[in-house]
Please model this.
Amino acid sequence: MFCEQCEQTASGDGCHQFGACGKSPQVNAVQDLLVHCLRGLSAIALTAKANQIDTHEVDVFTCEALFATMTNVNFSVSHCEAYTRQAIALRTDLRAQVEALRSETEWPAIASFTPSFDASLAEQGEEVALKFLSQVGEDAVDIFSLKLTVLYGIKGAASYTFHAYELGQEDEQVYQFVHEALNALNDESLTLADWVDLALKVGEINLRSMELLDTGHTQAYGHPVPTSVPLNPRPGKAILVSGHDIRQLEAILKQTAGTEITVYTHGELLPAHGYPLLKATYPHLYGHYGTAWQNQTKDFLRFPGAIIVTTNCLMPPHDTYSDKLFTVGPVGYPQLSFLPASDTGIPDYAPAIAKALALPGFTEEAPPRSVTVGFAHNAVLGVAETVVNAVKQGQIRHFFLVGGCDGAKPGRSYYTEFVEKVPADCVVLTLACGKFRFFDQDLGKVAGLPRLMDLGQCNDAYSAIQIAIALANAFAVDINELPLSMILSWYEQKAVAVLLTLLHLGIKNIRLGPTLPAFISPNVFKLLSTHYQLQAITTPERDLAACLC
Ligand code: SF4
Ligand code: SF3
Model:
């Protein structure tokens, strides 16, 4: 088994026997096979695009299939086999269309690779899988490290692209590059410099993907506004929606409208409460339940209603609650009920609704607790003058963006301690699921502004970038000269894509933890630290002092 795509990777250099995330060697191998088939599909898609053949179905499929191979998304051999079959079917069709125009077209071998669906797909996956970083010869290790960085980064970018597509926002240059990145993995002639350029290009394209998603969210649901979200459940039947997919959340709200069901968000869907049109249209979108993904086995067990997981991060479910858990889209797990999408991309949520009505729901009032969300770029830049004046008058000394993924490792307490130690004249901006370690702390106010502001989901790194650019313009300085430090936590491939975006923008002095990616070789890290002063977190005290000096 070979997998080192996430931070949780066993023994620090890769999962060898079984995924620390719960992914079996069989699922891992079939996902490797799927990625191999996608590389062949992309080679053909690029030729088809060059010949003005419509590749839209292939473009969207490629993004969804890559999404399914991300950490904590799909654990089902049959789902991964279905994606693989579809990759081959789409490839056959597209190839025939190209050859009808240009019969003499020559294809790389990977564009003809067809697995035998009558034999073990896992065994075939093992044969075509990329190797471990530690298995690559010394001379190839840095290129291989960058290849993996590109593959993992493009998975993250593809997932945001898929969300944006669901909201009607697309850009051909993004689809083109997704195929170029996958096809580059087929090219043994690329140099180290080529791979560095490709990795930064992943960051550039991911910025566009996040921008598309931001447009999709704000056009459909309005710009987020500061909104108080109850953390205390209210009596009544209940559905919990987890993941990142706000369009699926909206579909669930639509299908539960007029029932007695209250809808709660979980994990990365907390920021959905900040979108004013969603709140106004669906008053039964009530509150948030639970914290970050790694606590879901406790949170899901206790939740007295149906639970729908729309994207990462799904953990292998316990038998005690798996009968009330449903998955949609790219998410899958063998024992769980999967709700297939209709032609509109929206599943019929009736089975989840029936389950919610059959379960007891919440029976008692709980003491009120709440958090405030909705400080996305429009809200923060709406008070830009106050922010700029407060900085000029010395009321606000520094901004810290403490954001990224959460995870199970004990070293992640660094982020809570860091936020607790931030001086009273500094503001903490946060995003993604890492915030659940401190999201309900009352940090008070500075210069009339909350000291803790939640910008949203991980893809709302786009908001952080817009805020930083606007402040840099207001102060007429480079972003790197702002009193702003980025203290990031990573876990899965969306975080890889966001990090590459920040590097593409030339942002320096990012502190990354809790550990550095296993797929980054020492030389590649040296390159990143030399050019971007990218550094590993140390201790909250030391890092704070360095940021404030
Ligand atoms: Fe291991 Fe992470 Fe891969 Fe899961 S996704 S098998 S935890 S490296
Ligand atoms: Fe979290 Fe999985 Fe990454 Fe969107 S939900 S940030 S880890």
User: Anything to note?
Assistant: The chain has three domains: 1-134, 227-358, 375-548. DSSP finds 18 helices and 16 strands in the chain. The mean pLDDT is 96. Residues 227-358 form a domain with the Rossmann fold fold (CATH 3.40.50.2030).
